[in-house]
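Run log // design_07
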């Protein structure tokens, strides 16, 4: 099979099992894939020119030592490549799968910039770590000594988990509190399984649990347990609660049934993949099967919604965005993937109302791009008299997320927030306005990326260790 065709075939077979050719058995596929992945990783790693100006490394939020692990992979020294790669990244197999590499490491590869196509750094990172798991090179967490101090982490997303990993390896007693029934945050319930397989996330959570991290799940801090109670119980606290307040769309008819929030739609789909009982999915309320789906928004969450709808068997899937392709916030790679799968993008279009008690259509105004606004992006302007109706049975609102009002929710006046509602925290340490309280991830940055949450979690854990050390010295004096 020609390499190009093989690549396409493997991608389709992995992403869309329903399209897998019927004569291909799962075990054949696994073997073909393993062989192919090994050859592909080595081939890609050998393409790295070891240029000496590793822009890839500087543009990776974790400053991963990419040239070194690419060289080791090209030389077939995979275990050493894994050791180098995991030294700076807590979850390399996760980042390899879901980082928007076109905006980070790969977008800054000098080979890409000289027009020869980037080294596929993320895929190699994923391959190295998947191989490490298969071969038992991923070491369990075994602190060399136990420390008496304990840290409470609120939120079991990538920020909280990365901090827990560093602290636990240092022997600190770590408890993570989360309001969901499973750990992982958006890795578990936000990002769809076709981008990030859930067993990959669960394996990491099991590793933390086996290493002594305590998880207190189904615990909504502020309701089931107060923030002060957690503060009183631990020597330090890390807030890693992410951002979950959905930006809403207020327009005539927007309360019709069939108009749903992206996070609810994606959570239902992810829960279903775990085999959970999800009545809203079974009744069709949060299920795109057989429907004309319209997704509103142009970010990565919108891309996840359109691609999930396709996989659920929607009759048609359209994505409405008020700017054009060049000005959309989502990854262009994701748009290309969605288009290839049959999603239609309706650019320069904004909803102004919805028809039906159970939605039957979206009233759409056409837009044109005017002068740049304060953010430097060209502002969309209405074209008068351009309204038309886009038929729809399911409308998914994917307009972004904002932080919840933590000081109010938790009744803590002293916790300072920014004018955007994010927790005010020192840049490299995550220290907040409260003594012994740190914050990491989206709740500090606003909706961001997994790799930045990991970076924050690791940095902040270092600062917490310093804080605990200073307190221990004071106590000993
Ligand atoms: C649909 C979607 C797709 C995305 N895709 C990508 C992608 O492909 N690549 C990428 O890099 N990034 C992606 N992101 C962004 C990425 O998921 C986030 O930036 C990242 O998960 C932030 O990590 P976090 O640890 O700060 O928060 P989260 O992952 O949001 O975790 C926060 C945790 O805190 C818990 N929590 C909140 N409040 C409380 C409380 N009061 N009590 C107890 N627990 C609480 C929540 O239940 C949750 O488990 C995506 C985001 C979304 C919404
Ligand atoms: S962590 Fe993300 S940005 Fe860094 S090398 Fe890996 S895929 Fe690239």
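design_07 sequence
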């Amino acid at each position: 099979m020609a390499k190009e065709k093989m690549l396409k075939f493997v991608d389709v077979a992995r992403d869309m099992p329903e399209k897998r050719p019927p004569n291909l058995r799962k075990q054949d596929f696994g073997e073909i894939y393993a062989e192919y992945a090994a050859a592909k990783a080595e081939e890609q790693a050998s393409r790295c020119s070891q240029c000496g100006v590793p822009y890839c490394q500087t543009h990776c939020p974790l400053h991963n030592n990419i040239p070194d692990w690419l060289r080791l992979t090209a030389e077939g020294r995979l275990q050493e490549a894994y050791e180098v790669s995991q030294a700076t990244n807590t979850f390399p197999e996760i980042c390899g799968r879901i980082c928007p590499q076109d905006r980070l490491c790969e977008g800054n590869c000098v080979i890409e910039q000289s027009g020869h196509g980037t080294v596929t750094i993320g895929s190699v990172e994923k391959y190295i770590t998947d191989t490490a798991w298969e071969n038992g090179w991923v070491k369990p967490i075994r602190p060399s000594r136990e420390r008496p101090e304990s840290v409470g982490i609120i939120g079991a997303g990538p920020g909280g988990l990365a901090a827990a990993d560093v602290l636990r390896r240092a022997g600190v007693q770590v408890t993570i509190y989360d309001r969901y029934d499973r750990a992982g945050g958006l890795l578990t319930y936000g990002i769809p399984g076709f981008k990030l397989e859930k067993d990959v996330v669960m394996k990491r959570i099991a590793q933390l649990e086996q290493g002594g991290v305590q998880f207190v799940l189904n615990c909504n801090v502020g309701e089931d347990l107060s923030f002060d109670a957690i503060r009183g119980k631990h020597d330090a606290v890390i807030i890693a609660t992410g951002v979950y307040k959905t930006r809403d769309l207020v327009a005539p008819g927007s309360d019709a049934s069939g108009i749903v929030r992206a996070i609810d739609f994606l959570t239902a789909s992810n829960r279903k993949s775990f085999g959970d009982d999800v009545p809203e999915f079974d009744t069709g309320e949060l299920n795109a099967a057989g429907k004309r789906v319209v997704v509103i928004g142009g970010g990565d969450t919108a891309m996840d919604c359109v691609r999930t709808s396709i996989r659920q068997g929607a009759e048609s899937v359209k994505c409405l965005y008020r700017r054009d392709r060049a000005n959309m916030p989502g990854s262009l790679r994701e748009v290309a993937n969605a288009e290839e799968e049959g999603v239609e993008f309706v650019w320069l279009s904004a909803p102004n109302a919805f028809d039906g008690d159970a939605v039957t259509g979206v009233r759409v105004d056409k837009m044109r791009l005017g002068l740049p606004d304060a953010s430097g992006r060209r502002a969309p302007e209405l074209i008068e008299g351009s309204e038309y109706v886009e038929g729809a049975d399911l409308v998914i609102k994917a307009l972004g997320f904002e932080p919840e009002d933590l000081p109010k929710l938790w009744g803590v006046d002293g916790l300072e927030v920014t004018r955007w509602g994010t927790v005010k925290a020192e840049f490299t340490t995550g220290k907040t306005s409260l003594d012994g309280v740190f914050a990491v991830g989206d709740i500090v940055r606003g909706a961001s990326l997994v790799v930045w949450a990991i970076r924050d979690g690791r940095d902040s854990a270092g600062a917490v260790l310093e804080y605990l050390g200073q307190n221990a010295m004071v106590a000993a004096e």
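The chain has 19 helices and 16 strands.
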